[in-house]
Amino acid sequence: MKYTLLAALLALGTYLPAQAQNPIIKDVFTADPSPLVYRDTLFLYTGHDTASVQETNYKMPDWRIYSTTDMVHWKDYGTRLSPRTFAWATGDAYAAQCVYHNGKFYWFVSTFHKKDDNSQGGSAIGVAVSDRPTGPFKDAIGKALIVNEMTKDLPHAWDDIDPTVFVDDDKQVYMYWGNGSCKWVKLKDNMTELASPITTFKPKNYIEGPWLYKRKKLYYLVYASAGTKPEMIEYCTAPSAAGPWTYRGIIQENVPNSFTTHPGITDYKGKSYFFYHNGSLPTGGSYRRSICVDDMYYNPDGTIKPIVQTTKGVAPVK
Question: pTM surpassing 0.90?
Answer without folding.
Answer: yes
